[in-house]
Amino acid sequence: MKIKQVTLLILCIVLVSAFLSTELSAQCAMCTLNAENSTTNGNTQGKGLNDGILFLLAIPYLIAVGVGILWYKKYRKNQPKRISPFER
Questions:
Q1: Domain boundaries, the chain
Q2: pTM of the predicted model, to two decimals?
Q3: How far is CA 50 from the centre of its chain?
Q4: Which of 32, 38, 75, 80 is the most buried (most CB within 10 A)?
């Protein structure tokens, strides 16, 4: 019962913080100015900045998928072969 209460409390805190959050500036000043100026002047530097962010975002997921595939192959190799009663 206590685990349900803790889980509910954490969920409430996350929801309240999501609804009450304010706009945050997570970029450095140079990146922010570069992105703002590229949209006003029609340059493609903003597109390059977005592509770089997506590249940095994708790498950890690709590594995790690779580790998962290797783990799955190793796990499947170590499993004993089961004979079905219908195959006799």
A1: 45-79
A2: 0.43
A3: 16
A4: 38
